[in-house]
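User: Teach me something about this protein's shape.
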Amino acid sequence: MANSRTAGVELGGTKTILVLGHGSEIVEQIALATDAPEMTLAAANAQLRDWHAAAPLAALGIASFGPLDLARGAMLPTPKPHWTDARIRDALNAGLDVPVAIDTDVNGAALAEFRWGAGAKQGFASLCYITIGTGLGGGIVIDGAPVHGAMHPEVGHIRVRRAPGDTFGGTCPFHGDCLEGLVSGPALAARFGMAGALIPDNHPQWAHVAAELADAIATLFLVTSVEAVLVGGGVGTARAGLLPAVRAHVVANLGGYLPFIDAASVEARIAAPVLGERAGPLGALALALDALP
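Assistant: First, the predicted structure itself:
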């Protein structure tokens, strides 16, 4: 690895973060608004070219919101206007022609947490990273590698059992009351009838949010057998009472069936990301390092 000078792009629904890296160290970081794809990708590519001209980049990692066609490096049908079919990988790598890896933003963050965050700190060989913000996504790492199949995990669009008495119809344009349609930032604004920052912590609807998020997390433990689920994003980290309520529901839902999750261990098994807001940008660098020949 003679040249470990790499670049990463975390392409989010509202902002795009570009990082210049040396190994796992972020040397420089720049944020752009995520607007129309032509404008956003061109601006990001211009910055990447500047870094490449100053000293050649060895690889590029792209961690993008989805859903993605990973083979083409392109966006699949998405609720974000104008982004369907955007050729993300080719646009960002134009003029660089370096080895490039693209994955979802949450798979990238999960990979960073595995290598330099919760995985390293707790010794986990597998974990799931969920981010709750403008959308809701989940990345899964098993034995050090992000999970792929026909495409990539789409945790936000699984259906959950509705909390008793919850009549909120959900906001997902594809599925209505899937997990993203119930607990993402826009879903919470619609559910509570106010902007997220104005929602009081003691609003009774939070009980429904916690129960429905917990149902999805319990399902993830049962289906994937990950050792931990990390909950990040603006919604996931802004409410101090949310994770404790989710943990209590998960323990109750599992009913003692999984021996590694009980009232004593659940705080380590369902936690905030160790890397905090750095998980996403570092995830893009982790992908770049994996692209190195």
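Now, about its shape. The radius of gyration is 19 Å. The mean pLDDT is 94. If you'd like, I can walk through any region in more detail.
User: That's plenty for now, thanks!
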